[in-house]
């Protein structure tokens, strides 16, 4: 597996993985994948990754960031999306994508990453917790899917490097933090 920047050329395969996630009913409130232009406008232009099969070049998963607000005070805060093709799950691909996304986001000055995850999506919750995200709380009945109200768990990861004091930043570069 190779990690590369996500580009428009990857979109057909990225979109197919996204649609498969949508079809599970436990990945997103979104009901259909958007066009490339719409997706591109809704995500930060940096910190977009795909995981490619080294032998075939096939997209096996993707990760990207969306801004949480247009207000400048939240310029270093983003929402995480990580999707892995069904046939590639359980092989550490999600972890590799998420850790690389964290590194890329910090290189861009991002200090907080958030994830809104359905409680039923236990693998995603475990993935994020293993990457240093902490549970902030449960947002009850935050949105509807059809006629059903859904809860989400809000997880966040504060950078140990961006916006950190010198002692914390040194510990992060020594490997004492993710």
Key features of this structure:
seven-stranded mixed sheet, Aminopeptidase, alpha+beta, 7 strands, single chain, about 180 residues
Describe the structure.
The protein has 178 residues and is an alpha+beta fold. The chain has one domain (2-173): Gcn5-related N-acetyltransferase (GNAT) (Aminopeptidase, 3-Layer(aba) Sandwich). The chain contains 5 helices and 7 strands. Strands 1-2-3-4-5-7-6 form a 7-stranded mixed β-sheet. Strand 4 (77-84), helix 3 and strand 5 form a beta-alpha-beta unit. The radius of gyration is 16 Å and the shape is globular.
Number of helices: 5
Number of strands: 7
Shape: globular
Structural class: alpha+beta
- CATH topology heading: Aminopeptidase
Keywords: Acyltransferase, Transferase
Protein name: N-acetyltransferase family protein
GO molecular function, one term: acyltransferase activity, transferring groups other than amino-acyl groups
Domain N-acetyltransferase: 1-156
Short note summarizing the structure:
InterPro entries: Acyl_CoA_acyltransferase (IPR016181), GNAT_dom (IPR000182). With 178 residues, the protein is an alpha+beta fold.
How do the helices and strands line up, and which of them pair or pack?
Layout lengths: L1 E4 L5 H14 L11 H7 L6 E4 L6 E9 L9 E8 L8 H15 L4 E6 L4 H9 L3 E12 L2 E11 L7 H8 L5
Parallel strand pairs: 4-5
Antiparallel strand pairs: 1-2, 2-3, 3-4, 5-7, 6-7
């Amino acid at each position: 597996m190779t990690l590369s920047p996500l580009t428009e050329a990857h979109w057909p395969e990225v979109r197919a993985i996204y649609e498969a996630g949508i079809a599970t009913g436990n990945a997103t409130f979104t009901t259909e994948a958007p066009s490339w232009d719409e997706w591109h406008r809704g995500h930060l232009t940096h910190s977009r990754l795909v995981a490619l099969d080294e032998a075939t070049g096939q997209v096996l998963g993707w990760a990207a960031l969306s801004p949480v607000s247009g207000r400048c005070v939240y310029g270093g805060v983003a929402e995480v999306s990580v999707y892995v093709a069904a046939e590639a799950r359980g092989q550490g691909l999600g972890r590799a994508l998420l850790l690389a996304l964290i590194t890329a986001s910090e290189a861009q000055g991002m200090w907080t990453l958030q994830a809104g995850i359905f409680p039923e999506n236990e693998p995603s919750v475990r993935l994020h917790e293993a990457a240093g995200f902490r549970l902030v709380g449960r947002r009850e009945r935050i949105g509807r899917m059809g006629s059903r109200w859904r809860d989400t768990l809000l997880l966040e990861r504060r950078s140990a490097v961006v916006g950190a004091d010198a002692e914390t930043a040194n510990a992060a570069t020594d490997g004492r933090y993710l």
